[in-house]
Amino acid sequence: MYAAVVTDFSLPPRFDRIDDPVASGDDEIVVEVLASALHPRVRSQADGSHYTATEHLPLVPGVDGVGRDADGALRYFVVEEGAMAQRAVIDRRASLVLPDGLDPVTIAAAMNPAMSSWLALRRRADLQPGQHVVILGATGSAGRMAIEVARHLGAGRVSAVARDTTRFAALEALGADEALGFDRIGEVAGADVVLDYVWGAPGAAAMTELVRARPDRSEAFTWVQIGSVAGPEAPVLSAALRSSGLRIVGSGQGSVPTRDILEELRPLAAYIGTGAAQVDARALPLSEVAEAWATPASSAERLVLVP
């Protein structure tokens, strides 16, 4: 069969022939892959920079996708690697049978970016109805979906923070009450939950400003660290922690138990399947994996590889 294959972390994957996968465990099955999305998590897997990366090569990237099993059932699946191939071995326990009629490209494109905010709000921040959610880095694919997810899960107010002022109208159309730049973040008062896709120096500066803007600094609010597009380290001021009810947590592979992630797959897929979320996806043949990798990672459009 053919797959996207990484043989050097400094080079993009190439389209190449490899051996067919073979299921070995009692819960393992082989699926015909229909769609697998290229998102930041996969890019960091393929270049060896993700915190879960190992040194072993060759590697078939891809951590989730949509496939059809031997019985004809359509499944959304999560794997450690190997989704960007014509066929993949999956653990049936880490998959979800989808209703017929759903578009595999849409599901593959939306599940990962939507999962980042869904898990953060459901499992790390325990969002309560009516609370104020602030999203840092709201113009990215995951950040835009976070606006809709926060609304769906009951946020009373959503503030979208980003650098690209040309996209502010689009963010408000998605459901943000306000869209503003990092230079105006001090105007955002009373945040209950912050979803941070930025981190780095801009994230640390925003943290200080949001603490200063709180009407009552002693009230608890949760900062959920999800992405780090501005850098892996942030110079957090100790005073921001000592002078407020700020709680900093991470949300990602390792901080959320696998069982919790699996429990959230069904309601998230149901939400996406209703068509309520706006999904900007473009399908490309798996054979064009090198061209897909050349697309800027900051692109708002989610690329989905189709074998």
Q: Distance between termini?
A: 10 Å
CATH class value of the largest domain: Alpha Beta
Radius of gyration: 20 Å
The CATH architecture of the largest domain can be given as 3-Layer(aba) Sandwich
Structural class category: alpha/beta
User: For the residues shown, what is the average pLDDT?
Assistant: 93
How many beta-strand runs? Answer: 15
Main beta-sheet strand count, sense and barrel state: 7 strands, mixed
CATH-defined topology of the largest domain: Rossmann fold
Order of helices and strands: EEEHEEEEHEHEHEEHEHEHEHE
Q: Report the helical percentage.
A: 25-40%
Low-confidence sequence ranges: none
CATH superfamily of the largest domain: NAD(P)-binding Rossmann-like Domain
Number of helices: 8
* Number of self-contained structural domains: 2
What's the shape? globular
List the helices and strands and how they pair.
Layout: E1 2-5, E2 14-17, E3 28-38, H1 40-46, E4 64-68, E5 74-78, E6 87-91, E7 95-97, H2 104-124, E8 132-136, H3 141-152, E9 157-161, H4 168-173, E10 178-180, E11 193-196, H5 200-212, E12 220-225, H6 238-242, E13 245-250, H7 258-273, E14 281-285, H8 289-294, E15 302-306
Parallel strand pairs: 8-9, 8-11, 9-10, 11-12, 12-13, 14-15
Antiparallel strand pairs: 1-2, 3-4, 3-6, 3-15, 4-5, 5-7
Helix pairs in contact: 2-3, 2-7
Description:
- The chain is an alpha/beta fold and 307 residues long.
- It has 2 domains: 2-101 and 277-306, Medium-chain alcohol dehydrogenases, catalytic domain (Quinone Oxidoreductase, Chain A, domain 1, Alpha-Beta Complex); 114-250, 3-Layer(aba) Sandwich (Rossmann fold), CATH 3.40.50.720.
- It contains 8 helices and 15 strands.
- The protein has helices at residues 40-46, 104-124, 141-152, 168-173, 200-212, 238-242, 258-273, 289-294, and strands spanning 2-5, 14-17, 28-38, 64-68, 74-78, 87-91, 95-97, 132-136, 157-161, 178-180, 193-196, 220-225, 245-250, 281-285, 302-306.
- Strands 3, 4, 5, 6, 7, 14 and 15 form a 7-stranded mixed sheet that branches.
- Helix 3 links the parallel strand 8 and strand 9.
- Helix 2 crosses helix 3 and helix 2 packs across helix 7 (258-273).
- The radius of gyration is 20 Å and the shape is globular.
- The protein starts with a strand and ends with a strand.
- The mean pLDDT is 93.
